[in-house]
Inverse folding.
């Protein structure tokens, strides 16, 4: 079977790998000139945190996301499973309590455990939550690794091709274009996320740390070699415009609150991605005619791609009824 | 309740921020029975119309939209945002919010009055988010506002009614002006209290959006507001120091 996947973001690449490993002849078309910034995955945090996400996401996200950790460990060996640490300033202890009420698979962390897990935070936070089973990865390196794997599997990626979904000639077309699919999926909306990349060689963190705050929580994810990714805002906007001063201040302020040494960090990059979301913020895999749509992964691209890709592959390879829908919930 | 000539059955106004998803917001709106939903307009989104996805979901709810100027820190900024909101939502209604302090998010009442006067003169129907200060309330009415929205407590704090005396005074001074408690309500019991004080309505956001079950909480508030209003209209008894048996003992058969 010949399958064309449109879009080389995380959903497209993962879907292509799943298809190719089941023997389909796959090609990917991507409107961008090469792997990179046209995909919102490029600006993702890369947290594989199904249980932390329970704080705001509906149950299917954790249920579908839990299996993704082993998928990523299998396909990207630099996936790190050291858990997630969630902390809050003493003033905001109520936020921790609320977070704990809505999530599972964590242990309460006192000052000693926080210090043992992340010595640089010793004495700075007295209470937190530790989610030991969660993992994280560097999205850009992961996307590159998947691209290399696909190459080795004989899958071509044609860059610089803005495919018309209706006109692609293949047995099956899988539309993984993210927010660009808004032209055919009217319910899809953009949710803007902004991030900052910092170099802070004086700070050592070994796992994602989330700082809770009544107005804006942030997360800091170590990328190695003293580089940290700071994210992420959630704005009801599809603008790809540059990071605003307000967002940058919110993010940097929070980083400074996490550790004052961030004040000396160098700003390497300010980035913006627009995440595709359906009104319930849950992902969908469904088929319309010859086209299977994988979309609405919202802020969970890396977490949910493996599960959604598997659903898409089953739909593509099986002879499912024409307008079938396979929703996550 | 009549706000700027619009007759509303529900006395609950609902904010649209911070829900887990727009679908959840839609369910909460339905469960609350509200007829008015507030929407905040970030200036950068407004300029590029890039918030369309979310705004069209709000419009599809079939309720009246009350755009707000959340996040504005000066009269000028608020006026600009209000005009942008009028263009986008095609309504003269504007919830005017001018923040004076970043920590408490309390209104800058001086810029609030200034912006209210300018917007009222420009044909807007202004819903000013203000404190419980009587003199400021009076100035807002002079500026042309015909609805007032005093705070219960700082935005998002969930502390209920911080100054009952001040709120009671407002009610007593302006018996004919619709007064809506805006901000600070955390629990249904707070809303009941506001309604029992004789306020015309309550505007909520965080208390519903950040509840464990926003839809159930929206329904709980709807009932609380109805109960509080009914209690107010039924003229509650005054508290007394002396106990009085509800069934008199005199004349009862005495059985030994």
């Amino acid at each position: 079977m010949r399958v064309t996947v449109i879009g080389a973001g995380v959903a497209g690449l993962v879907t292509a790998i799943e298809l190719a490993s089941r023997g389909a002849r796959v090609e990917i078309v991507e409107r961008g000139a090469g792997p990179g910034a046209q995909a919102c995955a490029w600006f993702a945090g890369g947290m594989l945190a199904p249980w932390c996400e329970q704080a705001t996401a509906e149950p299917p996200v954790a249920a579908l996301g839990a299996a993704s950790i082993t998928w990523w460990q299998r396909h990207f060996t630099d996936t790190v499973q050291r858990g997630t640490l969630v902390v809050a300033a003493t003033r905001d202890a109520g936020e921790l309590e609320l977070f704990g009420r809505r999530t599972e698979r964590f242990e309460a962390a006192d000052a000693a455990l926080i210090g043992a897990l992340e010595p640089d935070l010793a004495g700075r936070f007295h209470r937190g939550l530790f989610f030991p089973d969660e993992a994280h990865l560097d999205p850009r390196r992961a996307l590159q690794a998947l691209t290399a794997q696909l190459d080795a599997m004989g899958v071509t990626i044609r860059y610089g091709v803005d495919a018309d979904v209706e006109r692609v000639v293949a047995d099956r077309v899988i539309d993984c274009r993210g927010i660009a699919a808004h032209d055919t999926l009217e319910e899809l909306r953009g949710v803007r996320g902004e991030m900052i990349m910092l170099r802070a060689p004086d700070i050592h963190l070994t796992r994602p740390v989330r700082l809770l705050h009544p107005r804006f929580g942030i997360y800091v994810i170590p990328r190695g070699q003293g580089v940290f990714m700071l994210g992420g805002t959630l704005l009801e906007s599809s603008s790809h415009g540059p990071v605003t001063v307000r967002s940058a201040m919110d993010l940097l302020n929070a980083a400074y609150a996490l550790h004052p040494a961030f004040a000396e960090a160098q700003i390497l990059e300010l980035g913006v991605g627009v995440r595709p979301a359906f009104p319930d913020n849950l992902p969908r895999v469904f088929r319309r005619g010859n086209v299977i749509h994988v979309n609405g992964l919202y802020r969970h691209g890396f977490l949910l791609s493996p599960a959604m890709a598997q659903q898409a592959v089953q739909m593509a390879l099986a002879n499912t009824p024409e307008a079938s829908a396979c929703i996550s919930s | 309740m009549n706000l700027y000539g619009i007759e509303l059955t529900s006395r609950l106004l609902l904010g649209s921020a911070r829900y887990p998803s727009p679908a959840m917001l839609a369910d909460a709106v339905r469960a609350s029975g509200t007829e008015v939903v507030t929407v905040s307009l970030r200036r950068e989104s407004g300029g590029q119309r890039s918030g369309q996805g979310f705004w069209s979901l709000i419009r599809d709810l079939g309720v009246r939209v009350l755009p707000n100027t959340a996040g504005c820190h000066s009269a000028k900024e608020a006026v600009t945002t209000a005009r942008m909101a009028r263009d986008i939502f095609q309504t003269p209604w504007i919830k005017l919010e001018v923040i004076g302090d970043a920590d408490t998010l309390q209104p800058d009442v001086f810029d609030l009055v200034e912006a209210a006067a300018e917007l009222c003169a420009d044909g807007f129907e202004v819903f000013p988010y203000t404190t419980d200060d009587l003199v400021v309330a009076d100035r807002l009415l002079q500026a042309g506002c015909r609805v007032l929205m005093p705070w219960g407590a700082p935005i998002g704090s969930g502390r209920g009614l911080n100054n009952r005396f001040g709120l009671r005074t407002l009610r007593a001074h302006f018996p004919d002006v619709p007064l809506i408690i805006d901000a600070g309500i955390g629990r249904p019991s707070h809303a009941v209290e506001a309604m029992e004080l004789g306020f015309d309505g309550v505007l909520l956001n965080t208390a519903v959006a950040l509840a464990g079950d926003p839809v159930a909480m929206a329904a709980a508030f709807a009932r609380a507001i109805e109960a509080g209003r009914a209690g107010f209209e039924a003229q509650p008894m005054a508290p007394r120091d002396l106990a009085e048996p509800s069934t008199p003992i005199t004349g009862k058969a005495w059985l030994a």
About this structure: The helical segments of chain A are 10-21, 59-65, 68-75, 93-102, 111-117, 139-152, 245-258, 301-317.
